[in-house]
Structures are given as structure tokens and as C-alpha cells.
Design a protein that fits this description.
Strand content: 15-25%
Largest sheet: 7 strands, mixed
Number of helices: 5
Distance between the termini: 26 Å
Shape: globular
CATH class: Alpha Beta
CATH superfamily: Alpha/Beta hydrolase fold, catalytic domain
Length: 214
């Protein structure tokens, strides 16, 4: 992907995470969370296409799996290290708090756009830090964990996109995550795509339309 060129901060390790920040012309911010093997540049072009005027905040996952960045450890395919997931989720929440101060962001105008592993930690962020996000687009996410107590997510809009032939995220996982978020009070939209785990143009259009409507 090409990278937005104007107002792009160089890669920095400030605020505790390697990241890029691209200043927009309006107060909305997209928190871009890449999938396994991505980095802080991976979703910048997607974010700019989704909202040409928003701030873009794109951190790099700090866990390496066979040299590929991730946001938290997993023990096997689809089996998460729940202790590390919780610790990394709290770490991401602290990073967001620091970014709000450093870049003068409006915390009530932050929307996460996460893909795969990035979508999973965004879902964990909703469950553990329900006030951290105004809304979230979770692309090919699964249930990060089953909370003992549901958070209060009234007023939080969430889009889930899922592939009917996704071998990484079984359909029942997407449905269960939607149920958990709905039971927590979130305004949930579940969009099914005919393909697998890859992102498609149809999916991009669904996310763009959802962002515009919210």
C-alpha cells in the first residue's frame, strides 16, 4: 500500500509503542490495528481511503511470532495467551491515553479499525476498557475471551465483518462476538462476506458506509 505523505510523523517509539501519527483536518481519529505480520504502515492507506479527513493513529504490535509483529501472544492457531492478551490490552489503553495528550485528540471521537489480530485486541479493548473507544470496526475478529462480567457499552457502535468461508475465524466465533457485544449494550452490525479471511473491496465499502453513517 502507498502511505499518506502529508503531515506524517516519522516512526517513533514515544508513548511506549512504535507508531505513526498522521494529522487530519477534523477531530475524528481512526486507531488502525494491523493483522499478524503487519506494522504501523500497513493500514495507513486504508485508513486514509476510509476517511480522508480523520487523524490516523497506527501502532505496531510489540509481540513477535516467527519474526511477525502481533499485538499479543497466541499458544496455537485460535488459542490465545489470555494473560498476555490482558496485559497487552491494558498497554494499548495506556498508549491511547498518552496519544490523546500528546496529539491533542478527542477521546470521544476515536474509532478503532482492526483487522484479524488487530481486530481481536480491539475487541478485547472494548471488553476491558469500554470507555476507550467511541466505536469500532472489527474485520475478521473472533472472541478474544469470555468476560466474567459484561462491560457497559451503551452508545458504542460496532461493525463486525466476517467471511462465510473464513478458515481462520469460524462463523460461530463471529456470531458469538456479536452476541457478547450486543448483550453489553453495543449497537452491533454484523456484515457477512462470501469469501475467506482476506479483505475485499465489498468489505471496504461496507466499512466506509458504516463509518459515514456513524
Amino acid at each position: 500500500m502507498s502511505h499518506p505523505e502529508s503531515d506524517t510523523r516519522p516512526v517513533t517509539e514515544q508513548l511506549g509503542m512504535i507508531h505513526r501519527f498522521v494529522k487530519g483536518s477534523k477531530p475524528d481519529t481512526l486507531l488502525l490495528l494491523h493483522g499478524t505480520g503487519g506494522d504501523e504502515d500497513d493500514l495507513l492507506a486504508l485508513g486514509r481511503d476510509l476517511d480522508p479527513d480523520a487523524n490516523l493513529l497506527s501502532p505496531r504490535g510489540q509481540v513477535l511470532e516467527n519474526g511477525m509483529p502481533r499485538f499479543f501472544r497466541r499458544l496455537a492457531l485460535g488459542v490465545f495467551d489470555l494473560e498476555d492478551l490482558a496485559a497487552r490490552t491494558h498497554e494499548l489503553a495506556r498508549f491511547m491515553d498518552d496519544a490523546v495528550s500528546a496529539y491533542t485528540l478527542e477521546p470521544s471521537r476515536i474509532t478503532a479499525v482492526g483487522y484479524s489480530n488487530g481486530a481481536n485486541i480491539a475487541a478485547s479493548l472494548l471488553l476491558l476498557h469500554p470507555g476507550a473507544l467511541a466505536s469500532a470496526a472489527l474485520l475478521h475478529a473472533m472472541v478474544p475471551f469470555e468476560p466474567a462480567k459484561l462491560p457497559e457499552l451503551e452508545g458504542t457502535a460496532v461493525l463486525l465483518t466476517a467471511g462465510r468461508r473464513d478458515q481462520m475465524v469460524p462463523a460461530d466465533q463471529a456470531k458469538r462476538l456479536a452476541e457478547l457485544l450486543e448483550e453489553s449494550g453495543a449497537d452491533v452490525t454484523l456484515e457477512w462476506q462470501p469469501g475467506g479471511h482476506e479483505l475485499t473491496q465489498t468489505e471496504f465499502e461496507a466499512v466506509k458506509n458504516w463509518l459515514e453513517s456513524h
